[in-house]
Task: inverse folding
């Protein structure tokens, strides 16, 4: 058996290519939007992609399953356990082979057995993998977003991200029973999850690339809870705020994903003209560089591991946009634009160095006021806006502060219009700078970024518990 884990750091997402060494046939599981990633991987191993499948309908990236199957001339296999109209319509539209619980995908002498594991989504499948060239004992399982290292897939996304009211408690109960059924499998099985640390598809994912079922049964919190009601309460508690783009990913993955866009080739002058006529400026420099001076109307999304998640939370994919990068980051421009396309940002016109842009700017230079977080409360008449997650807020917060997590902020700006000066803080300072840029770009004249965040404030003051003005 040939086994390849293809991991995307920005999305904390793992796709898998598994092939039979004898027949050179391969299956790809959970591909991203760009089929070229998997065609190149197959070429390196000299294998032919014969099957493409998914563990479930994804919410955190655009699926490449249909495009890859078409591009490679492969069979598309999708879960038959579709309970909603959109997922069922996708099965009909794509004419995919439906996979039921217990169905087998035979890839040469490699065997993948589908098992229905609802909870994260109603149609979720895992695949138990056997290398029949070695023997009849299974070697591991592709667990998708059902089971992670140290955690399980969150069952609340259909309700919290997509708006399917009343679904999360029933999904959590299904997840509990699906986990209990895992105890019947051999404990020596390797577990190859669909995500690692940093993904919003769980709340405490481990960073190791794989684990074993026996280790998870003994250490994963979810296996230590033996009562359904207790499990439901615990799995739904303190889940991270789903990024705003998740609902769009679900809709497009069901309805059909447009082809991967080509890399833009705008030169510096054409990008300057685009900025002058109103294209959104996405400033991907550090918060410190942005606070020191940026183009009017720019939104800060620092380049780094959380770039894709933050971009999907605060940017509008329907807007034309231009990336502004620090000079040393210009070689990373193509990768950043590619990553944005993986979540549906197809109107990025290109990237330009701040060094080439700011000395002769096509728009006015703006700045954001800053203050030490320890001095929050000294700004007379100000609203203190805490953009941390609800779980962070519950662990302690500044008295009188208003909690709106960063991922919710763009949809709730209207609520702040009569707030007067706004002092924004997060835990350490990065998210608050992003939030302050969103408010400033939306026309708020009096926005102050509290440097050092809640950590700095808590060192100088005594924190309080939850409950005050959180909404």
Result:
């Amino acid at each position: 058996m040939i086994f390849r884990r293809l991991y995307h750091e920005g999305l904390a997402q793992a796709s898998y290519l598994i092939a039979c060494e004898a027949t050179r046939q391969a299956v790809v599981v959970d591909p991203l939007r760009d089929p070229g990633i998997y065609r190149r991987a197959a070429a390196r191993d000299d294998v032919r992609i014969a099957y493409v499948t998914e563990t479930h309908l994804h919410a955190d990236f655009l699926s490449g399953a249909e495009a890859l199957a078409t591009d490679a001339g492969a069979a598309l296999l999708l879960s038959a356990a579709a309970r909603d109209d959109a997922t069922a319509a996708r099965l009909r539209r794509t004419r995919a082979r439906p996979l039921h619980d217990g169905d087998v995908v035979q890839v040469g002498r490699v065997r993948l057995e589908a098992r229905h594991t609802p909870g994260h989504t109603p149609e979720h499948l895992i695949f138990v993998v056997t290398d029949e060239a070695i023997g009849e004992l299974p070697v591991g399982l592709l667990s998708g977003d059902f089971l992670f290292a140290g955690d399980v897939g969150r069952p609340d996304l259909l309700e919290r991200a997509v708006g399917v009211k009343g679904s999360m408690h029933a999904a959590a109960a299904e997840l509990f029973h699906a986990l209990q059924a895992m105890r019947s499998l051999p404990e020596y099985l390797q577990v190859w999850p669909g995500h690692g640390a940093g993904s919003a598809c769980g709340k405490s994912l481990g960073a190791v690339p794989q684990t074993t079922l026996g280790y998870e049964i003994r250490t994963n919190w979810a296996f230590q809870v033996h009562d359904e009601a207790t499990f439901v309460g615990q799995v739904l508690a303190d889940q991270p705020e789903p990024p705003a783009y998740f609902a769009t990913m679900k809709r497009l993955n069901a309805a059909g994903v447009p082809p991967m866009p080509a890399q833009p080739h705008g030169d510096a002058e054409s990008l300057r003209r685009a900025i002058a006529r109103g294209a959104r400026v996405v400033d991907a420099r550090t918060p410190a560089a942005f606070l020191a001076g940026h183009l009017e109307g720019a939104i800060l999304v620092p380049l780094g591991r959380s770039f894709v998640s933050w971009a999907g939370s605060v940017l509008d994919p329907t807007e034309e946009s231009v990336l502004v990068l620090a000079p040393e980051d210009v070689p990373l421009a193509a990768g950043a634009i590619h990553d944005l396309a993986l979540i549906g940002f197809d109107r990025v016109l290109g990237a330009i160095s701040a060094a080439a842009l700011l000395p002769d700017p096509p728009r006015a230079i703006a700045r954001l006021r800053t203050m030490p977080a320890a001095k929050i409360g000294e700004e007379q008449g100000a609203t203190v806006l805490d953009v941390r997650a609800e779980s962070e807020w519950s662990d302690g917060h500044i008295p009188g502060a208003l909690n709106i997590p960063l991922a919710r902020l763009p949809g709730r700006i209207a609520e702040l219009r009569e707030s007067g000066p706004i002092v924004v803080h997060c835990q350490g300072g990065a998210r608050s700078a992003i939030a302050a840029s969103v408010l400033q770009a939306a026309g708020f004249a009096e926005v102050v970024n509290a440097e050092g965040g809640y950590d700095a404030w808590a060192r100088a003051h005594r924190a309080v518990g939850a409950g005050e003005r959180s909404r």
